[in-house]
Each structure stands twice: as C-alpha cells, then as structure tokens.
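Good morning,

Attaching, inline, the backbone tokens for the sequence recovery test we're adding to the shared suite. The designed sequence is right after.
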C-alpha cells in the first residue's frame, strides 16, 4: 500500500476544510499533481478519516472510456450506496441520463465553451438541491477522481454544485492531473474563481522521502543495498516506487510490476500522453518534439508534445533529460500497442527518418522492428545499413537487415545477391544457419544471377558442409563460362585459378585429375586488380604448401597475418589466415604460429564473431600441440567446439576434434579421447586435410592405448591418401615416423627402420620438428652402438623446434642409453629433466614411464640423492642459476633472454661463467638439479 510520506500538510489542510464544512461552511478542494503522485491514496486516507468523524462519504471516479456518456459521473454520485434510503431514490431519479435525452440538446454533448442547454441546467439545479437537502441531515464528503475524464454534462453539474456549496454541509474534493491541457486550464480557472475552492498540489517524493519509503518496504539491510537504485529508477514517483519495492520483495513473480505500474499511470491521463510516450519509445529519447508530433500525424502539435514530455518529467516518468528511465519502460509502452498498430508506427517512423535524411542504420532499425519494408526505397536502405553493420562487426544487425531486404526484393538477380550477402553474415554467426541458402544460391549461379566472385564463395560454403559433388559441379560450370571462347576477363580466370590452387591443397580428394596452376617463383604477395586479395593470398600459400615450399613462404605468411585485420569482411579472410598459420607450422615455426593464432583469436572474440573465434581457437590448439603444451591444446580445442557446435563445424570438425584427441591421449585422458572419436563424421571429411588430421589423431590415440595394429592402419591410410592426392612431398603429417613407431611396438624393427630412412631422405628431412623424431626412432630401430650420437643430435633438434613432448621422449631414451653404459649420474640428470618437462606439460603417461625408469636407477624421485653437483652449484649467482635452470629445461638462448628480459649476449656470458664454475663444456652436461629454480624465475 503506497505510503503517505510527505503528505501530512495536505491531510491537515483537508481536515481543516472538513471542520469548516461541519460548521455549515461548505468547501471544495482540487487536488492535482503529476501521474502516480498519490492523489488516489491521499483521497482514500482522508475519506476514512472523515467517515470516522461521522461524515457520509460518496465517491465516484471518472473514466476516459465513459467520457461520452452524458451525466455519467453525476449518475454515479447520485446512485452511491452511501445515501440514506430516504434520499437515494430521489437522487437516482434526478440523475438518470434519460432525462437529458433531447437530440437537439445532447446529440454531441453540451458545448464546453457555451452555456448548458436548458434541460441540462434544470437537471443540474434539481440534483444539486436534492443533494444539499440530503446533506442537511448528515454532513457529506463527495470525492471525485480524475475530473479531466468526466463527461461534459457532469462537469456542468459539478460547477453548479460548487457555486451552491457555501452555507451547506458538503465538502467536495476533486482530483486531476497537472498537465496543462487547454480544457483543463479552463476548468481550473472556473473553479478557482470561487473563494471557497482551494488547491492542494502534490509533488513527487524527495530523495530522502523515497529512500524512507523503500526502507519501510524492504527493511534497512535490503534498502541499504538496493534502495538508491530503486529510487533512481522510480524518479520519486510513489506509485512506481511502490511497484518496484513489491517486485523486489516477490522475486518469484514472473511479471515485473514496474511495467504495469507505468502503464497504469499513462492510461489514467489523457490518451495523447501514452501516444507521445510510445512515439518517443520508437524514435528514441533524443527525438525532438517536432519529430514526435510528425510521427503522430495530426493528433498532437509540437507544443502539445513539449507540454506532455515536461509533465512526464515532473512526474518522474522521464528523467531530467526527458528520457525513459529503463529499457523495460520502452518495451512496456510499445507492447501496449496492438501488433498492427506497432507495425504501422514503426513504418511511419522509418518513412519520417528517411525523409529527414537520417542514417540508413536508423531507417533500417524501424523497418526491421516493423518486419515489413513496402516502400520502394526500403531495400536499398536495408542493404546500406547491413554494409555499415558488417564494417562495425555487428553481424546480428546485418543479418536482420539482409533477411528483410531479401524478403522484400522483387527482382531475382537482386534477391540472389542479397541472399549471398546474407549467407556471408550468417556464416560468421553460425554456418549451420547459412546452410539452408546453399541450394537456392546454386540455382542462382546456374541462372546467371550471381557473378564469379559470389559463385566461388558458394563453392567454399558447399565444401564446408560436405557437399563436394555440388561444389565440383559449380566449378565445372564456372570453368565452362570462363573458357577461351567466352572472353573471360583476366580477373575472372585468375580468380578461378586461385580457387583451383586452394582446392588442390585443402580438398585434394576433389581436385584429383585437375591441373594445379604453376606456382610462381616469387611468393611475395602481389594483388591483381578485381580479385579478392585474400583469395590470392590463400592460393599463394596453398600452392607453397602443396609443393613442400613452406619454408620459402614464411615471410609471405607473416605478411598475410599482419594484414589480416584489414580484410576482416572478405569471404576468404579466415581461409588465408589459417593457411598462413599452416605455413608456419609446416616450416617448423610453431612458436610463431602460437603467437599469431592467439592474436587472431583475441581479435575475433572482440568482434563477437563465433565462427572466426572457433577457427582461430582450433588453430591455436594445434600450435600448442606442436609445442607439447597439451593443456592449452585441449582447452583451445574444447573452446573451438563450444563457439561452434560439431554440426556447425561441418567437415572442418576434424581439426579441433583431432587436436583434442591427440592432446587428451598424450595427457592420459584416454576415455575422454575415445568419446570424442565416437562423434559422427561424414565420409566427405576424409577427402580433405581436416579428415587427414582426424585420421592421424585417431592413430595417435590407438598408439597411446597400445592398439598397435589399429594405429598402424590409420598411419598407413594417411600415407596412402597423401600419395593418392599427390601431397606426399608436402609434409602435411609425419605419417612415416608414427607408422615406424607403431612397427616398433609391434616388434618389427626392419619395417620401422625402412620407414624412418624414407622420412630422412625427404626434402623436408632437415627441419628440426621432423628430423628430431625420426632420429629418435632410427636410434630405437638401429644397433645400440649408434643410439647415443643419434639421440644427442635429436635433443638439440627438439630443443630448437620447441616440441616438449618429443623432447621428453628423446631425453627418456637417452637416459636409458646412459643407464645401459652404467653412466647412472648422467642418466639421472637426463631423467630429472625429462620428468620435470613431462609434469610441467601434464604428460601423465610419460611421467609414469619416467618414474619406472627412475626406480631402475635406484632413486625414489628425480632428486633422491640430494647431492649437489661436485662442480659447485652453490657457487652460482642468482642470475646465473636462473639462466642455467632454463638452459637445463631446453630453452634456447633467445627464449631465455625473452623470459628473463635480458639480451641474448648476456645469456651467453652467464652460461660461459656457469660452465667454468661447474667444470662442464656444454649445456647437455649441466646438472638437472638446476630445474628446481624454474619457479623462482617466474
């Protein structure tokens, strides 16, 4: 129940008037105030007090819906159940509206500005006399609410009654709003010219009063936390504040009370008030009065709009700047409109904005809200707004605009182009949503409604969703249209050639038998006119990868990555960036790929582009896997499958799934990895590099779970696919070394030895990330006497490549070699280093294997002997110890410099002093105990 805070003076004033009335000095009071200021509650409380004093209370309220009912309010006063039986029948008879049924007088109601018709005047006189006679026996309080809604005949009666109040025992209390309508000003002027009529003006609650109301409703503790916020929203309006308090107390109520309370305020005033608020909600709070009036048509003038908005601000329904206080308020007033009314209002707003030269985004906002765009200029406005939204990375807004534009477009070529743009925008949010457009777009290409650039983007989308046959059919059609006889432009033939080059690497199963264009000798990025530069970049990088020339394309790849932010809107942007990252990985630059993929991932997340975010998360996961950072690899891959569902990933799901399976398998989470392998993947995936990555990862899982034959089958299948595709020389996956590992576990050293020798005879055999594992396996497959030198070289190579997983395996094997030669001290040092890296990178299976080797060496842990190296580790300075500890863990001088924020030259000087103090010649001889200082180095 609304509080009467800050209303004591008003109650006292009414009590004083009632006292005068009891002494036969009839009075009238007009209580006015803003919407929701508590006029009704004030009247209710005062009526109860008057009844306690023996006063007969008669109440009536006016309604806008009954304004055209002649004598309606007077009739309700006369028929009140409060009248004594002796007077009730006479009053009811005198107030019967039928007595006014004179067509000549009341067909349109009495003229507000003129004198009442004679019949109405006689009715007012008779009813007033009867009412005053009834008050002679008992004092009467007549309460009439919202007289601004009273019918004109009843207003004549009330004015007549006011004139005859002196010398009576009647107190008439009227309530009205404070909006300065012209009719209201006339009524108030007529009332206040009588000296016995008094005015009581209510104002919104002060901030202190509002906080007190909240405290009474919520209690001190809740009010301390929520009170200021509620007061700010209600703006001192008692009705709204009370509704917010009740809502706060009853959180289980699904319908907020603020909206209904706001509508209650607006419906109780003139109809024009709600219309103005609805128009403001549509146009925006900053819309000038002239625009609001234009939107409402002939209903309101700019001056009337200004008065209404000022009154609403006074009531606290608008803030000091004339704005609706909450988004809920805007939604509430618009939902009060019927759907067709809301649509019409939005369309009129769009027309108004278009005619006034507002930005396309503003025009489009109204059209999208309306869900219709019948104007001839609407499609162009929606398209322009969509382009601006795409520039600002507001993909959802672009999708909404393009959907409506496509719906309203008439010409088929226009509809095809709009559908193509819609697919591009939807694909950034969810590729599954865009899939429904592929069949109509394919038909549009056949009909010639789309250009070559749009058709090539369609090919990419078809391939993403595993619709390879349709993609090939479209490519064949495009090739026939760009043949020599068709007079194709150089840009058209160049674009088609670029797509063929890209296809030969990414979807080689579909490119079999197609002639792959020759790779230019110069791989620097050159842009041909009229061709998407990102498509050209993707083609150049794919060509380099296809021919095993990744190392030559590293500079080009990094340039593409540096420029990625400039081409975010092009359809081939993500493809070019992913291929650039692939070049870095194939060139053994996994650390650089990890840095770039993280930058791309951060930028995509900032743009709120789920598809790009998922792609770059998957790429970052693969980079982390190459570095042996298994936790990061698994987390990034899971994130990639969260940003996009496996279904939305299409055939590309093989990339995040494969990385996740390998990471979890190497972490010992075999059940989880096996669960991911149960995800249904289409056969079309195995015609792409994504399928190859998945197949390779599955083999790695089988190898980790000791299913050697299954693992071997998958690795050999990878090799067969690469040979079939003509990509065996591209070094896509090291299937030979992994197959050799499987043969070794199946105790077939001869086949393992042959596969490793094949690997080492390849053109990319000198790359550290491929040569290191090959040498480890060659050592395992060859005679024991050669194992030491081979593994020693492998240690250097794995350190250079940064592959922690392979580094642990090489160190483990080298530790066993030293153990076999009875060099247990060196074996223990290598073992400790390997165990530390394994634990640091969550390689649980390898860590368990190392613990068993540790037991064979006769120690309970990596530092069981607790002995300090005889060379004098204690003589090292703190800086030297930090550098040495990182060197023991396999970091290069450049990496140590980066971690410790010193120069590479300083690192070299520290290591020289360390070697001298410890009596060693190279970093391999450093005592593994030094890794304990790693945490101190941060």
């Amino acid at each position: 129940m609304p509080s009467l805070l800050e209303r004591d003076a008003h109650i006292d004033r009414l009590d004083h008037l009632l006292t005068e009335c009891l002494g036969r000095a009839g009075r009238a009071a007009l209580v006015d105030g803003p919407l929701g200021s508590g006029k009704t509650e004030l009247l209710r409380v005062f009526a109860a007090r008057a009844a306690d004093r023996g006063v007969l209370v008669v109440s009536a309220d006016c309604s806008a819906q009954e304004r055209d009912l002649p004598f309606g309010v007077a009739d309700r006063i006369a028929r009140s159940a409060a009248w004594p039986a002796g007077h009730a029948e006479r009053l009811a008879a005198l107030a019967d509206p039928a007595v006014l049924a004179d067509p000549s007088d009341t067909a349109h109601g009495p003229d507000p500005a003129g004198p009442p018709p004679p019949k109405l005047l006689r009715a007012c006189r008779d009813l007033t006399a009867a009412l005053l006679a009834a008050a002679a026996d008992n004092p009467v309080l007549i309460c009439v609410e919202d007289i601004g809604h009273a019918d004109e005949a009843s207003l004549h009666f009330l004015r007549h009654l006011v004139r005859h109040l002196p010398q009576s025992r009647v107190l008439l209390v009227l309530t009205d709003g404070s909006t300065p309508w012209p009719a209201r000003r006339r009524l108030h002027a007529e009332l206040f010219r009588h000296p016995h009529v008094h005015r009581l003006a209510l104002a919104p609650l002060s901030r202190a009063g509002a906080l007190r109301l909240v405290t009474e409703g919520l209690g001190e503790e809740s009010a301390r936390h929520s009170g200021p916020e509620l007061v700010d929203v209600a703006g001192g309006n008692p009705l709204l504040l009370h509704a917010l308090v009740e809502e706060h107390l009853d959180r289980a109520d699904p319908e907020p009370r603020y909206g209904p309370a706001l509508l209650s305020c607006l419906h109780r005033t003139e109809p024009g008030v709600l219309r103005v608020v609805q128009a403001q909600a549509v146009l925006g709070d900053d819309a000038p009065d002239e625009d609001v009036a234009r939107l409402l048509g002939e209903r309101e003038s700019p001056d009337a709009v200004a008065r209404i908005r000022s009154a609403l601000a006074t009531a606290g329904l608008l803030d000091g700047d004339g704005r609706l206080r909450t988004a809920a308020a805007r939604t509430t007033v618009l939902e009060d409109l019927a759907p067709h009314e809301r649509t019409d209002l939005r369309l009129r707003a769009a027309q108004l904005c278009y005619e006034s030269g507002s930005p396309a985004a503003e025009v489009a906002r109204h059209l999208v809200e309306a869900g219709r765009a019948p104007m001839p200029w609407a499609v162009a406005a929606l398209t322009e707004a969509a382009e601006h939204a795409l520039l600002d990375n507001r993909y959802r807004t672009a999708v909404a605009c393009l959907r409506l534009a496509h719906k309203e477009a008439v010409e088929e070529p226009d509809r095809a182009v709009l559908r193509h743009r819609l697919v591009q925008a939807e694909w950034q949010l969810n590729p599954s949503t865009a899939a429904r457009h592929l069949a109509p777009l394919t038909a549009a290409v056949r009909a010639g409604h789309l250009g070559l650039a749009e058709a090539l983007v369609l090919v990419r989308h078809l391939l993403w969703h595993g619709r390879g046959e349709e993609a090939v059919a479209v490519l064949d059609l495009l090739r026939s249209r760009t043949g020599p006889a068709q007079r194709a432009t150089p840009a058209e033939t160049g674009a088609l050639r670029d797509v063929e080059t890209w296809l030969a690497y990414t979807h080689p199963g579909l490119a079999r038998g197609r002639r792959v264009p020759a790779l230019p000798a110069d791989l620097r990025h050159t842009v041909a006119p009229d061709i998407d530069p990102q498509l050209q970049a993707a083609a150049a990088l794919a060509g380099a990868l296809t021919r095993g020339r990744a190392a030559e394309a590293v500079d080009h790849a990094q340039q593409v990555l540096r420029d990625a932010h400039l081409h975010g809107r092009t359809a081939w942007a993500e493809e070019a960036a992913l291929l650039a990252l692939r070049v870095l990985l194939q060139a053994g630059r996994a650390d650089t790929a990890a840095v770039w993929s993280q930058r791309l991932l951060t930028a995509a997340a900032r743009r709120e582009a789920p598809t790009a975010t998922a792609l770059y998360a998957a790429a970052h996961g693969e980079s982390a896997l190459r570095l042996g950072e298994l936790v990061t690899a698994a987390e990034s891959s899971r994130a990639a499958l969260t940003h996009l569902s496996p279904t939305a990933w299409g055939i590309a799901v093989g990339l995040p799934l494969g990385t996740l399976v390998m990471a979890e398998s190497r972490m010992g989470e075999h059940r989880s990895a096996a669960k991911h392998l149960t995800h249904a993947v289409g056969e079309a995936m195995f015609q792409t590099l994504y399928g190859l990555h998945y197949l390779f990862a599955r083999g790695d899982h089988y190898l980790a779970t000791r299913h050697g034959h299954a693992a071997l089958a998958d690795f050999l299948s990878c090799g067969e696919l690469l040979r079939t595709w003509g990509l065996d020389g591209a070094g896509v996956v090291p299937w030979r070394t992994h197959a050799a590992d499987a043969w070794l576990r199946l105790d077939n050293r001869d086949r393992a030895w042959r596969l490793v020798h094949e690997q080492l005879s390849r053109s990319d055999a000198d790359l550290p990330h491929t040569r290191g594992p090959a040498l480890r396996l060659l050592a395992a497959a060859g005679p024991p006497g050669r194992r030491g030198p081979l593994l020693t070289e492998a240690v250097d190579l794995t350190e250079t490549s940064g592959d922690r997983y392979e580094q642990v395996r090489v160190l483990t094997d080298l530790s066993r070699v030293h153990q076999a030669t009875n060099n247990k001290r060196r074996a223990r040092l290598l073992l400790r280093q390997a165990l530390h890296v394994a634990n640091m990178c969550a390689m649980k299976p390898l860590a368990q294997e190392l613990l068993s080797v540790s037991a064979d060496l006769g120690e309970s842990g990596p530092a069981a002997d607790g002995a300090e190296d005889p060379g004098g580790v204690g003589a090292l300075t703190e800086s030297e110890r930090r550098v040495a500890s990182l060197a023991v863990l396999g970091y290069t001088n450049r990496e140590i410099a980066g971690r410790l924020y010193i120069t590479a030259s300083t690192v070299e000087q520290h290591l020289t002093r360390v070697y001298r103090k410890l009596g060693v010649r190279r970093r391999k001889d450093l005592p593994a105990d030094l890794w304990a200082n790693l945490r101190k180095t941060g």
